[in-house]
């Protein structure tokens, strides 16, 4: 499903603030694979996920292939339309934009024209699964949600958008133990249903309680140092 070949990323090249964040990342994920990424703060974990999603400009070098197709030069939108989904380490709040409007536009943008009522049903079901109130659908995106609620909201978005490649950046931070187990179960069931692949950055093994890990990679100073 996913091949990452020799991906490198340098922030602020040629300046005193130059930072080589990734130094040749190679990774292969099959359909239905569950891969975890561990490593210390600043190791490059989020930078790997952002590179796959196409965030931070196109100035990553190396190749990212999705189902054998080179998407290294594709925009974030194109990558999302090809079935990649990313949940942020720190989800941003967007005032003036409701969750329902955001998801409806996202579905519409990829050609799924659904009535507002149909979108509402999908979102309500997803919010209920993750343990959030359905009223969150009409509230501003992530606005005044607690840290853990934001993470649950990210998973609700995944359930609505139905991606085939799911990138989760510290999805468990801020989640209590019971919620962590619930999200783990949701990820397992979603994987069974869709055959989705996951790349998950985590410091917490609880999120894996219901899942079978196929591969664990350890990142240090922008390199994969253990598999
Ligand atoms: P983590 O493994 O904790 O997720 P990151 O991938 O976020 O680490 O960051 C890797 C390194 O790159 C860190 O040293 C970080 O400070 C640096 N970095 C990340 N984003 C930028 C940026 N936009 N500009 C400069 N340095 C950055
Ligand atoms: Mg990070």
What would you say about this model in short?
The chain is an alpha/beta fold and 227 residues long. It is 33% helix and 29% strand. Helix 4 packs across helix 5.
Shape type: globular
- Kindly name the structural category: alpha/beta
Tell me the helix content: 25-40%
Roughly what fraction of the amino acids lie in strands? Answer: 25-35%
Distance separating the two termini: 19 Å
Tell me the number of helical segments per DSSP (H or I, 4 or more residues long): 6
Give a count of the beta strands, DSSP E runs of length 2 or more: 12
Low-confidence stretches: none
Show the helix and strand layout.
Elements: E1 2-11, E2 19-29, E3 34-38, H1 45-53, E4 60-66, E5 69-70, H2 76-81, E6 84-87, E7 94-98, H3 99-109, H4 116-130, E8 140-141, H5 147-161, E9 165-169, H6 177-194, E10 197-201, E11 215-220, E12 223-226
The structure holds adenosine-5'-diphosphate and magnesium ion.
Adenosine-5'-diphosphate binds next to strand 2 and helix 1.
């Amino acid at each position: 499903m996913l091949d990452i070949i020799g991906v490198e990323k340098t922030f602020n090249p040629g300046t005193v603030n130059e930072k080589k964040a990734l130094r040749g990342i190679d990774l292969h994920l099959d359909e239905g694979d569950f891969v975890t990424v561990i490593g210390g703060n600043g190791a490059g974990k989020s930078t790997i996920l952002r590179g796959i999603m196409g965030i931070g400009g196109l100035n990553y070098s190396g190749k990212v292939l999705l189902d054998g197709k080179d998407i290294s030069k594709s925009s974030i939108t194109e990558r999302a339309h090809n079935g990649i989904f990313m949940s942020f380490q720190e989800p941003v709040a967007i005032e003036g934009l409701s969750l329902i409007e955001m998801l409806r536009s996202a579905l519409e943008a990829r050609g799924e024209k659904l009535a507002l009522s149909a979108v509402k049903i999908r979102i309500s079901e997803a919010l209920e699964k993750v343990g959030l109130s359905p009223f969150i659908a009409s509230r501003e995106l992530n606005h005044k949600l607690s840290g853990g609620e934001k993470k649950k909201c990210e998973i609700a978005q995944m359930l609505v958008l139905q991606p085939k490649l799911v990138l989760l950046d510290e999805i468990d931070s801020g989640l209590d133990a019971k919620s962590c187990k619930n999200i783990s179960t949701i990820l397992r069931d979603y994987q069974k249903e869709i055959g989705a692949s996951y790349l998950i950055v985590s410091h917490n093994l609880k999120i894996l309680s219901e899942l079978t890990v196929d591969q664990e990679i350890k990142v240090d100073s922008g390199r994969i140092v253990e598999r």
